[in-house]
Amino acid sequence: MTREEKEEALNKLNEEQLAYCIQHSTLHVGTKQAVPGSGNPDTDILFIGEAPGQKEDELGVPFVGAAGKLLSDLLESIGMKREDIFIANVIKHRPPGNRDPLPDEIAVYAPWLAGQIEIIDPKIIITLGRFSMDFILGTGFSISKIHGQPKRKNGRVVVPLYHPAAALYSGNLRPALFADFAKIPKIIEIVKEEQISKKSSSKEKSEQKVETQQHLL
Questions:
Q1: 3 DSSP assignment
Q2: Bridge partner list, 127
Q3: Sequence-ordered list of residues with C-beta below 8 angstroms from that of 73, at least 6 positions apart, any chain
Q4: d(CA 60, CA 98)
Q5: pTM above threshold 0.85
Q6: Which of 40, 62, 86, 57 is nearest to 165 (CA)?
Q7: Burial (Cβ within 10 Å: 0-12, 13-18, ≥19) of residue 170
């Protein structure tokens, strides 16, 4: 799909899933608006956080508070901007008092994020925090043990990282977060090299098939 087609598909998804979530969950009650996500829908990199906070609820954009400022600094440290990526959350409405999302709430909102992943079709997914890590990789992992370590899931590279908010509350996590971000350009490079290699291999096989057919003729 082109960028325009992806934007149109995302807008349609947002309308459908907003209606579904309002019907099947009360999480929207007391919030100002949903926060579906923002950024470049044609990106190769999708960042996934946990849920909107107060500032995000007010503005309708993910990561705009203090954690958002740190995320922008982290992106800048590797030569990237928010406009280069797409950012979404597991939950699209702010939980009361910024509490953790509940399992039944995650289940209701799951098709929304799954739809975004399908439309954007990123090559790399970067999870920010435990909830998005569990959503993408499944439960059973400890973020303190696997942060910054690329994994493969459903044909994509997944990089679990600490949530920027956690680094704000625990200063000792900040260096680890910057160190993990520093790995991202290399991961992107490796993924692109793999794609080129696959295309070359596919082309060679196709050419060999044609040569074999011509020989048989």
A1: H
A2: 48, 160
A3: none
A4: 15
A5: yes
A6: 62
A7: exposed
Q: What are phi and psi of 152, to 5 degrees?
A: -115, 130
- Residue with token string 């926060």: 35
pLDDT in tens, 103-130: 999 999 999 999 999 999 999 999 999 9
- Specify whether the CB–CB gap between 113 and 21 falls below 8 A: no
Fold of 3-182: Uracil-DNA Glycosylase, subunit E (3.40.470)
The tokens for 204 are: 């060679």
Long-range contacts of 70-77 (CB under 8 A, 24+ apart): 70/164, 70/167, 70/168, 71/47, 71/128, 71/164, 74/164, 74/177, 74/178, 74/181, 75/181, 77/178, 77/181, 77/182
Is the CA virtual torsion 47, 49, 51, 52 positive or negative?
A: negative
- Measured in degrees and rounded to the nearest 5, phi and psi for residue 33 equal -170, 165
Residues 6+ apart with CB under 8 A from 36: 10, 14, 18, 88, 92, 112, 116
Say what the alpha-carbon torsion angle 53, 6, 188, 195 is, to the nearest 10 degrees: 150
Tens of pLDDT along the chain (217 residues) come to 999 999 999 999 999 999 999 999 999 999 999 999 999 999 999 999 999 999 999 999 999 989 999 999 999 999 999 999 999 999 999 999 999 999 999 999 999 999 999 999 999 999 999 999 999 999 999 999 999 999 999 889 999 999 999 999 988 999 999 999 999 999 999 998 988 887 776 655 555 554 544 444 4
